[in-house]
Amino acid sequence: MPRWLRTLLSSRTGLFGAVVVLLIVVVALVSAFWTPFDPMLSDIRGRWAEPGWPHLLGTDGTGRDILSLVMAGARTTLFVAAGAGVVATVVGVALAALGALTARWIRETVAVLVDILIAFPVLMIAMMISAVWGGSLWVVAVSVGIGFGVSIARVTRPELRRVQQSDFVLAGRASGLTTWQNLVRHLLPNVAPVFIVQLSWSMAVAVLAEAGLSYLGFGATLTEASWGTLLADLQRYIGVHPLTVVWPGLAITITVLGLNLLGDALREATDPTLSRNGAAERLTLAGEGSVVA
Predict the structure, then answer these.
(1) Which one of 42, 117, 145, 226 has the minimum C-beta count within 10 Å?
(2) 3-35+55-276: CATH class
(3) Domain ranges of the chain
(4) What is the mean pLDDT of residues 202-223?
């Protein structure tokens, strides 16, 4: 087992985040082939059923099984989070590389462009794009990915500039490595901890963005299960059936918390500086304990 994975799993927060993300992935994959009931099947005679058998989480106002809707919503959430993560990675790395490794006029142009784009909130960008192209999960994933790709570029760019002045990067350049080879071999691995935190945060906010946009009608369509859409449908009856709103809200909360905790734990596990500091601190504490003893 790699050292970073052992470090990740030895952390309580890292283990919790990994378990939550793995659980969401498994539920999303299972829901693609099986759910207890058809998520879109309405049964007026079984509307507002209490949690029990066969509807373990109850039903909504049209008789749809809430457990099936939550499971199918996990598939939607995973698609948006993964899609936004891929888009944010491509946009962030491209802008950061252009803003750190190119000619001065290109670097300054990219820096100004990033400062302009970052002034617009991600949800506003997503709503504007959805208003033009229509609400869909693809639009949400791409718009959220672009918005957070700009944020990733702004944070990663100065880190690339700092690492670029390191001796091993200069040695690689002197040995004949191209800018692209230096970027892949030396620069990106050394900025990975900062990048991982930003990426996990962007994926966590993508989950919230999808739920919020679907809640407002700009995200998932009526034929697609979504935690945000389910919240929008159930919140009107929260005074009569409050328990039904708990399940999609709890799913969103746990997913966002798991992604954030996993990102923090990955940063600590992959950052050699933090590992050395942690080891030094443990040795210091152990020495103090032995002296006291």
Answers:
(1) 42
(2) mainly alpha
(3) 3-35+55-276
(4) 78
